[in-house]
Amino acid sequence: MASPDDLRWLDSAARLAGRGRPLSRPNPAVGAILVKHGRVIGHGWTRPGGRPHAEAMALDQAGQTARGATLYVTLEPCAHASARGPACAELTAAAGLDRVVIGCADPDPRTAGAGIARLRAAGTPVELVPNAAAEASLAGYLTRTRLGRPHVTLKLALSLDGCIARADGESQWITGPAARAHTHAMRAAADAILVGGGTLRADDPRLDVRLPGLADRSPERWVLTHERAPDGWRALPAPADIAALAPAQYLFVEGGANAAAAFLAADLVDRLLLYRAPILIGAGRPALGDIGLTTLAAAHDRWRLADRRTLGSDTLEVYERNRS
User: Fold this and answer.
1) In the predicted model, is pLDDT for residue 323 greater than 80?
2) Identified catalytic residue from 55, 76, 90, 254
3) Rg from Cα positions in the chain
4) In the chain, which residue ranges form alpha helices assigned H by DSSP?
């Protein structure tokens, strides 16, 4: 049975996994921590390009001191070897660990349960402890593996009365510097970023990452259009075509109103980021177009508030999609 310490270490491994996103693609961003006598003796996260894996990195750091330790890992160790290295389940099984605690089972059919079985066959005790932080850190991989598409975050920067621009289209800037910096950090964690054709034509947005040390994390740029994409962009004809964004695990949709509505109408939004500025615009442009809602009752119970924080004078609300 998982202890409070087990849950704490899994949460820590999930935070560590974030260091691998999104450069670990096409592999999931995994975090691993080796603990012995209450002390961390090794840690790792999936490196750029997918190798080395988190478990291999942690075990390499610990060396022989890994014997008798507990490994906390966000995802079930892989059971399939490749030309790039042995399976993590094999490496872990040979390390002489006291326990392995896993935060999320791997839905990849090449591993699904086989990683845990390999460890147990080697005599290593394994506990699968479903962990919300671990699953959240793997959202892109889990969505890609289970649904065949990237995990979609929709970002909206709006006034208190739900406008994203003045009636004449002026939108720079609704939110302040802190909110804009946070948006850049979110871009840096995405594989691809998308806007609608109207927004591209009107604003010619850069959609890059302008934070110190993260300029190389700018995501690939997409535009929602049936027309030819301009240089530096790729065209996506419709939201339903996002499966073609392989191997992207995370798609960040920045608007405008029609593109946002199209993804919501297609039920393809997994996460909402609402940056609310303490201003009123009045007769401005609404944040959304028609999303195909037929009754007010159908709008309820679709979203749950996952986080709320203050960014300068603005407020960020994060909503996660409720899925049965």
Assistant:
1) no
2) 55
3) 22
4) 4-17, 54-62, 88-93, 114-121, 132-137, 139-147, 177-188, 197-203, 257-265
